[in-house]
TrEMBL record:
Keywords: Calcium, Repeat
Cross-referenced Pfam families: EF-hand_5
Record flagged with keyword Calcium: yes
Species this protein is from: Alexandrium andersonii
Domain EF-hand residue range list: 1-31, 73-108, 299-334
Record's protein name: EF-hand domain-containing protein
One Gene Ontology MF term: calcium ion binding
SMART domains on file: EFh (SM00054)
Coiled coil (UniProt feature): none
Length: 514
C-alpha cells in the first residue's frame, strides 16, 4: 500500500487529494463497480472531511471501510448466486463453484490467488485442501456463505491488484515512458504475455510474428484494415532488416495505431453527444459500435451494459468524454477476457493441459489469414496437419462437415472441437492396434466407428449397431469402441490375418454399415 501511495504522491507532500485517492483505490483493487458501490465509496471519501489524505488516514480509516462496504453492499445478490451454485443444498461451495461465481462477476483469479485466499479465510480447510499427490482439491465442499462473501471481495481486490502490479513491473523492466504506460496500461499484461509466447530469442520477437502477437493479444480494435496497417508500419520501420523487436520497440511500432484509436473514440464521442457534453447510457452503446467494439452474443451485450453503468461515476446517467475514452479501453479489455475465458472453459471441458491449449491456439492464430477470427476449411486442414501430420485429411474434412456447413469459416471454439474429434480418432486407433489389428485396417475401422457418431463419452446406442452386426450378444443401452471391435471381429475373419488386405476390409465395413 505504501508503495502505491508513494507512486501517487507526485509532489512528495505525503498526502493525496480526492482524485488521486480514487485512482489509488482502483490500483489496489478496491474498485466500485455498481452505482450502489460508488455511492457508498463517495460517502466514505466525503466523511474524511479533508482535501488531502495522509497515509495513516488511508490505512487506518479509508481502506478498512471501503473493503467492508464492497463486501457488504452486494450481500443479497451474492446470496442468490451462492444459492444457485449450491446445487446439492449442502450450505457449502466447492472451489470450482466459488471460481465459477467470480467469473460470472467478471473476476478471473489465478489458481495461486484462489488457494492463498481460501487458506486465509477458511483455515480449517488447510488439512484437506490437497490430494495425496499435492494437487488442489477443487470438488470438496468447504466454503460457507459468510466465508464466500469475504472471499468474493478479497479475490476481486487481489486479482485487480495483481494485474496492476504486473503492468507496473513490465513498465519498469522494459523502461517504458509514462506516456506509454498511460496509453497501454489496460493491455500491457496481455500484450506482454503474447509477446513472450512468440519470442524466438531471449526477449526478442521476429518481425514475422508481429501480426500473430497482435492477433493473439487482441489489444487493438479489430477492423478490416488493421492487418494492412501493421504490414505498412513494419515496412517503413527503420532497422527492419534487423528482423527482431524488443517489447519496447513493439510498443513503439504499435503506438501510432493506438493513438489513432484514441483520436477516433474522441471523434465518435463528439459526433454522438451533439454538444451536450455527455452521452446517455443508450448513446454509449451506439457509440461503442462506431468504435468497432461490438458484442458477440447476448452475454457480451449484457456485460457491456453493466460496464457502461459502472463508468457513470457521478450517477448522472451520462458519460463524459474522459469517461468514454476509458470506457472504450475497459470494455475492449473485458470482452477480450470473456472470450479468452470461453476458450478456457472449453479447454476445461476437454481436460487439456495449459501447454496443449497454447499449442492449439497458436496453430489457429498462425493460420488465420489477415488476422481473421475464423479459418477456412483448407486452413483448418493445414493447422491440424501442423499439430499432427499423421491425422488423415479426410477425417478432418468429415469432422468439419459434422460441425459446420461447406464453405463456412470456423471460429476457434469450433476448431477446438475438431481437435477433440481428432484426438478421439487417435484414441480409437491405439485401441484397435493394441487389439492386434493391422495399421491400415485399424484406420478403416476407426473411420467407420466415427461414422456411427459416438457421443462425447465415446458410446453408440446399441440399437444403432445391432441392425448391422449378426451376433448373439446383447447390450442393454450403449456400446463403446472396445465392444465394437469385439463384435466386428466376432462376425468376420481375424483382423490380424495377413491375408486380409486393407482394401477388402474397407469395402466390407462400408457394406456392413450402409
Amino acid at each position: 500500500v505504501r508503495r502505491v501511495f508513494e507512486a501517487y504522491d507526485w509532489d512528495g507532500s505525503r498526502s493525496l487529494d480526492q482524485a488521486e485517492l480514487r485512482g489509488l483505490l482502483t490500483d489496489l483493487g478496491l474498485r466500485a463497480r455498481s452505482q450502489a458501490e460508488r455511492e457508498h465509496v463517495r460517502q466514505v471519501l466525503r466523511s474524511v472531511n479533508a482535501l488531502e489524505v495522509s497515509f495513516e488516514d488511508l490505512v487506518e480509516r479509508i481502506i478498512p471501510r471501503v473493503r467492508y462496504i464492497l463486501a457488504e453492499v452486494n450481500r443479497e445478490s451474492l446470496r442468490e448466486l451462492f444459492a444457485k451454485a449450491d446445487t446439492d443444498r449442502s450450505g457449502d461451495l466447492m472451489i470450482t463453484e466459488l471460481v465459477g461465481i467470480l467469473r460470472l462477476m467478471g473476476t478471473f483469479p489465478s489458481q495461486a490467488l484462489v488457494e492463498e485466499a481460501v487458506l486465509e479465510v477458511v483455515p480449517d480447510a488447510s488439512g484437506g485442501l490437497r490430494t495425496i499427490d499435492g494437487e488442489l482439491l477443487l470438488t470438496r465442499n468447504i466454503v460457507n456463505f459468510e466465508q464466500f462473501v469475504h472471499l468474493a471481495a478479497l479475490l476481486q481486490e487481489r486479482t485487480e491488484f495483481a494485474h496492476s502490479e504486473r503492468a507496473r513491473r513490465i513498465t519498469q523492466v522494459h523502461e517504458l515512458t509514462p506516456e506509454q504506460y498511460a496509453r497501454w496500461n489496460h493491455d500491457l499484461v496481455e500484450l506482454y504475455a503474447s509477446f513472450q509466447r512468440f519470442c524466438d530469442q531471449a526477449d526478442a520477437l521476429s518481425v514475422a510474428h508481429v501480426t500473430h502477437v497482435v492477433h493473439d493479444a487482441s489489444v487493438l480494435q479489430s477492423s478490416t484494415g488493421l492487418y494492412n496497417k501493421l504490414r505498412g508500419l513494419l515496412q517503413h520501420r527503420e532497422g527492419a532488416a534487423e528482423g527482431v523487436l524488443t517489447f519496447k520497440q513493439l510498443l513503439e511500432l504499435l503506438d501510432p495505431i493506438r493513438r489513432q484509436e484514441q483520436t477516433a473514440s474522441q471523434e465518435v464521442f463528439e459526433a454522438h453527444c451533439r454538444n451536450t457534453g455527455g452521452l446517455s447510457l443508450l448513446g454509449c452503446q451506439r457509440a461503442l459500435r462506431d468504435c468497432v467494439v461490438m458484442p458477440k452474443g447476448e452475454t457480451e451485450g449484457q456485460e457491456i451494459e453493466a460496464l457502461i453503468q459502472e463508468f457513470d461515476e457521478d450517477g448522472s446517467g451520462e458519460v463524459d468524454r474522459d469517461e468514454f475514452e476509458r470506457l472504450v479501453q475497459h470494455v475492449t479489455e473485458r470482452l477480450r477476457t470473456l472470450r479468452r475465458e470461453a476458450e478456457r472453459q472449453r479447454v476445461f471441458e476437454h481436460n487439456w493441459s495449459e501447454e496443449k491449449y497454447r499449442e492449439y491456439r497458436l496453430a489457429f492464430i498462425t493460420h488465420a489469414e489477415g488476422m481473421s477470427d475464423s479459418l477456412s476449411w483448407a486452413r483448418i486442414g493445414e493447422a491440424v496437419e501442423q499439430i499432427n501430420n499423421r491425422w488423415p485429411r479426410e477425417e478432418v474434412t468429415f469432422t468439419l462437415s459434422e460441425l459446420s456447413e461447406p464453405g463456412q469459416t470456423v471460429d476457434i471454439l469450433t476448431f477446438f472441437d475438431v481437435m477433440v474429434a481428432m484426438e478421439g480418432y487417435d484414441d480409437s486407433l491405439n485401441i484397435a492396434l493394441r487389439a492386434g489389428i493391422e495399421q491400415e485396417a485399424a484406420e478403416n475401422l476407426c473411420k467407420e466407428w466415427r461414422r456411427l457418431k459416438p457421443s462425447k463419452e465415446g458410446l453408440v446406442p446399441w440399437r444403432r449397431i445391432k441392425r448391422h452386426v449378426n451376433t448373439m450378444q446383447h447390450f442393454e443401452t450403449e456400446v463403446g469402441f472396445t465392444e465394437f471391435i469385439a463384435l466386428v471381429t466376432g462376425t468376420s475373419a481375424n483382423f490380424a490375418e495377413a491375408s486380409l488386405t486393407p482394401a477388402p476390409m474397407a469395402s466390407r465395413l462400408r457394406g456392413l454399415f450402409q
